[in-house]
Amino acid sequence: MNGADRLCDTLLVNDVDVCFANPGTSEMHFVAALDRKPQMRCVLGLFEGVVTGAADGYARMADKPAATLLHCGPGMANALANMHNARRAWTPMINVVGDHATYHLQHDAPLTSDIESLARPMSQFVRRIASPEDVGPAIGEAYAASLSLPGVTTVILPADCAWGSVEPAELTRTPVPAPRQVDAAQIRAVAGLLRKHGSRAAIMLTGSALREGPMAMAARVCAATGAQIFAQMSNGRIERGAGRVAIPKVFYPIDMALQQLKDIDLLVLIGAQVPVGFFAYPGKPGRLVHENCQVEQLAVPGDDLPGTIEALAEELSARATPPAFIATPQAADGALPTGTLDADKVCAIVARLLPENAIICDESVSSGRSFYFDCHGAPQHDYIQLTGGAIGEGIPLAVGAAVACPDRKVIGMQADGSGMYTVQGLWTQARENLDVVTVVFANRTYAILHGEMRNVGVNDFGRNAKLMLNLDEPALDWVSMAKGMGVEAGRATTAEEFTKLFKGALSRKGPFLIEAVI
Amino acid sequence: MNGADRLCDTLLVNDVDVCFANPGTSEMHFVAALDRKPQMRCVLGLFEGVVTGAADGYARMADKPAATLLHCGPGMANALANMHNARRAWTPMINVVGDHATYHLQHDAPLTSDIESLARPMSQFVRRIASPEDVGPAIGEAYAASLSLPGVTTVILPADCAWGSVEPAELTRTPVPAPRQVDAAQIRAVAGLLRKHGSRAAIMLTGSALREGPMAMAARVCAATGAQIFAQMSNGRIERGAGRVAIPKVFYPIDMALQQLKDIDLLVLIGAQVPVGFFAYPGKPGRLVHENCQVEQLAVPGDDLPGTIEALAEELSARATPPAFIATPQAADGALPTGTLDADKVCAIVARLLPENAIICDESVSSGRSFYFDCHGAPQHDYIQLTGGAIGEGIPLAVGAAVACPDRKVIGMQADGSGMYTVQGLWTQARENLDVVTVVFANRTYAILHGEMRNVGVNDFGRNAKLMLNLDEPALDWVSMAKGMGVEAGRATTAEEFTKLFKGALSRKGPFLIEAVI
């Protein structure tokens, strides 16, 4: 057997059995090895941004990493933006990047590049395989790191390490380090602070703290102390809907975020980062809490976040306190919007018709600002969103979520400008017959940038600004593009048309795209 | 005025008047400044790979750099693969990457990343702007470096350096260092070696040595000494067609390349790198010349390549020798292929119908292997091709070439798998009404990888290999995709249909796509 076989076996022994791929010549032995492992599900993306975006969506829903297969530095370069998003979501991922044979690098052949330099900014772990026998240890380390850091790992596989021989061996599952437990004294201190600050305290969560159980436990702490609860501005996954905590996220618009957090004197971070402006704006602060706000970083990603919340509740004798902020179900008989379509109507219709146990992939950017609130009382669902601000993840995220959860409906809330970045992902949805409804907000502009231009004081746009901020002339025809990639699609210009198309899409299996002209 | 205004003025004073762009919030002041400069042509790409691929195509044809506008690390990450190709073509380019305000970086906001680490592998020059007053010097340095190295330059523009004030100043053109002249003694020595080795010598060219004049001069040297002539495997631009040198390129398939160069005992490199295998293959050499071949690197990119060839001709008294290898015009009355379409027929028809002064953008990969030879005797044209092996440059290259040369017909020879990487570029062709005919070789497979799998000994493909190497199920419908982005298109399944569509596309202005089903 060769190094590539060992690679596949090491993945499989660790239950990593999905590989999102876009191969090239230097990975032919890896492809041949995958071909010998029918238990590995290989999913082709027609561009590497689709590959890593799908791996991100998959792991967020499967709670285990997928592998990716990427071709040399340039292939990985195409994958970096969605690795960046995954890194910001603390998503476990094992990228396998093929490189030239070790002895061929000296020749600086055309595809040669410094893969490590490219990989490090978007990876929590980078490792170059040194020999065929090093393949197994390297993949094992990456697997453990992906789950314990947690995050994006990148392993560079020289072609001769893939094709070189290895001794057969009995493989066993790689041990994963247990998450760090937060110190009891720190728990006690923070509990005391929460008691002291009452409603001027807030707990901010991300990562595994945003699952139903830990979030409800945090809401018990809030009920016991009067504290408020927030999720970060962007998070890998939130379990949402009626009966769960209606957790607010930090707002993106800086003035709204400053307003939202202005009375918080104590901020307890459980996995979350201290909230900061997505961008700097002249004359506005970078941190979103006031200068005298006490910030307590109780736990960081990789720590036992649910255990931290449990310990805090225990310390506050709040384990049985009824949780605060539980969402009540939306009215069953509410009327659906009608008339000319706009973004808010699209959001309201999707929230109202949301099927039980759906997965929402949100890259709606400016169009979906009301959507998160609309869904507080919707049937229970998972909400996964763009985390790192690198647009072009929505369609791939939906691919990955649908591969992870074939029995659940995936709904992509997709801005048009962002959707064009990785539009090729529609083909993978068709190829794999994934149960995804993609709702495209066709406003034919980078709407968010119109607002940002006004923020910098430009209200009258000249020709160059219009050329750079508008997507009209010609308008994108999403129905034709989807058809071109094998995805059925329809266009809606009224709320009634949208409702009809959306109901139709929910009533069937397989990919469907709705161009919502707003 | 602010730093962003200074940036635009510094570009314009150096006659850099095209900016390919995909902006984000951190570049709003740059966008506003561009909006105040109607003499700057701003061209939007719906994905950053389109932006840098177009800048590459533009500079190859305009012989001066374009600027690009990219958004933070992830936006530049999307641009890296075509920066890699440009780097391998030694293309001048000035990338301006917006970043957070200097004082905001400490907060590690979601879009923050290590831009320098990402940029360096794909840039010959990287520089972070330190202050508003540093904008002018930084852009000036990048401009000079882009032309003198020559190559890809990347300048990082923190938002506060764009919005901060600068003193008005009288700007003057930035001096560009003159190219290095090759030492006369080295010329004499190489001339002597060429005389000695006769037909077992070869001159290998790239860069500016592949323009009509220098190439003809090199062919005079060949005529005088008996030497052979080659272009590198991949080159930024070759001036080709009847009456010019019919210069062979080094073959991609390793066995063909080894055969092609096996009798060369002296290789004189003028700008070119020593030829090596595009990939390593078990048991095959990395260098394509034999072990005892003497390799003389007479000049490197950035040196005066045409001057080097002139000096060599002078030394050999060959300046008036009739050049060898001049291509004779193709027969005017040759029959066009008929019947079921295949790749070779597409190539033959395009070569035969090629209009005078066309620009060919070649990313045909395996489908276009006969095309280069078919065009030796075609009407004079420029040939620009994928250089770094990072697929997904064909459509953007055509965008850039058409922007640079609005009066010339651009013909994109496009593999389907590669075309999907940056398919969004079709929209820019429509938006700008560029005179581009894109010929898609729709073989519905990564055909080159089928060959490479056989090279590693796999002849029977199982389910996973088929899933990763084939693009069928569903077949891509290029006509619908093009229509969705505003580009008219047609599909051909016979040679007659292809001929009719291609003639029709040549008879009109503006973008057209032909899906050649092969």
UniProtKB/TrEMBL annotation, chains A, B:
Keywords assigned by UniProt, alphabetized: Thiamine pyrophosphate
Residue ranges annotated for the Thiamine pyrophosphate enzyme TPP-binding domain, each copy included: 380-515
InterPro entries: THDP-binding (IPR029061), Thiamin_PyroP_enz_TPP-bd_dom (IPR012001), TPP_enz (IPR045229), TPP_enzyme_TPP-bd (IPR011766)
GO molecular function, one term: flavin adenine dinucleotide binding
UniProt keyword Phosphoprotein present: no
Pfam families on file: TPP_enzyme_C, TPP_enzyme_N
Origin: domain of life: Bacteria
Residue stretches making up the Thiamine pyrophosphate enzyme N-terminal TPP-binding domain: 1-109
Naturally occurring in which organism (per UniProt): Bosea lupini
A GO BP annotation: small molecule metabolic process
Family the entry assigns: Belongs to the TPP enzyme family.
Protein name per Swiss-Prot or TrEMBL: Acetolactate synthase-1/2/3 large subunit
Alphabetized PANTHER family for the sequence: ACETOLACTATE SYNTHASE LARGE SUBUNIT ILVX-RELATED (PTHR18968:SF86), THIAMINE PYROPHOSPHATE ENZYMES (PTHR18968)
